[in-house]
């Protein structure tokens, strides 16, 4: 079984217990005390090395003076909410409780209306650090921290002879003495005090009698209807004078209690130990580690609200169900797609047969469509030439030396003009004559001309809009019955005005013949 190490110290010595867990308690392999020097860490290392104890996890008990204890009364509440309620109530009772404090508690009792009374113990983060640091230097890892009088009371509660008694437990060390009131195995009050005089002296005994009486008086409020029945002194015959003195002073029976005689402890070498009672806290803490009880207290691992139940199983169940449903849906979709693929393949085969049988018709239809698209997008340039002949000013005012007609990639076309006018106002008149809803006229430049009779040379760009109708594809409108046909225009109105040829040779020298491009 795993080895357990317990260690505690006071001002003059270090005490160590090495044990193994067993059913119902523990088996002690070694228990010893070693002197303490000013260097606590070195004293711990030396004590363990001299006994051949290797490092590892360790449980540490602290004296009553190193922790803060308070009895708290809590309203009725579920057990899982007690840790939060204890900390909330401790904020009012503890003198300097902050977030870094470690807080644990042991139950005392619950009354008829559900109110709980607990004993809360706390230690600051700095106080815990002062315990962990010297242990770490000796290769020890602190995993459990108990309070010596509470751990001793837990050990006594494991003894059937004292489990249900109400007693005052007296535990002495080289530094001070701890007085603890227990009732039915629970600690209801505990205090620590330093006594004057030498151990066993009359002065020390009188001081102990006074402190014991004060403890009984202070614990009355916590005991309620109970009363202390006896006194238990942790130790052996060396405490007999103290036992007799307390019994006579307080009027209560007093007994000596050997912690190594507890039913929870087995140790064959206990007879060699001096001051056996000083090991009660260590033995109780290790017994709590071996088999925790309701009265166990651990400042290193305090009680906490239970974690909420894990929803992992629910999530796994929901996830499995979702996966099964998704698989079914995918299967149905896959089958449906397979059926549709078959239908598509069958339709494609039919379409291929139809295309083969109608191949010639399709080719002819494509040709017709191409002709229709050409007719829809082309401009009738003869109509444009006719329009210009009727629109242009007379030859005496304007002549053309070049005309170029082109279709654009977009719908419509462009007409480029190069010519001459008699005077500078002729260009504006020409542009006004040619500009209408389907023709946009832009001047590209003009300059003085050397051609006789024509003072200016011009260049114009005419943008022709796409025709809105096609004389080759549009159906002609049928004449309305009863309406007479409009009088046809005379031949003179349709034909362009006759003009005489004009000499365009320059005055200085003959000019080359101007070519007209249509």
From TrEMBL:
Ranges of biased composition (kind: Basic residues): 302-311
Domain of life, source organism: Bacteria
Region called Disordered, residue ranges: 292-311, 465-518
Keywords in alphabetical order: Coiled coil, Membrane, Transmembrane, Transmembrane helix
Record-linked InterPro entries: FtsA/MreB
Transmembrane annotation, as ranges: 315-335
Sections of the chain in a coiled coil: 337-364
Bias kind Low complexity: ranges: 499-510
PANTHER family on file: CELL DIVISION PROTEIN FTSA-RELATED (PTHR32432), ETHANOLAMINE UTILIZATION PROTEIN EUTJ (PTHR32432:SF3)
Descriptive protein name: Competence protein A
Protein species of origin: Blastopirellula retiformator
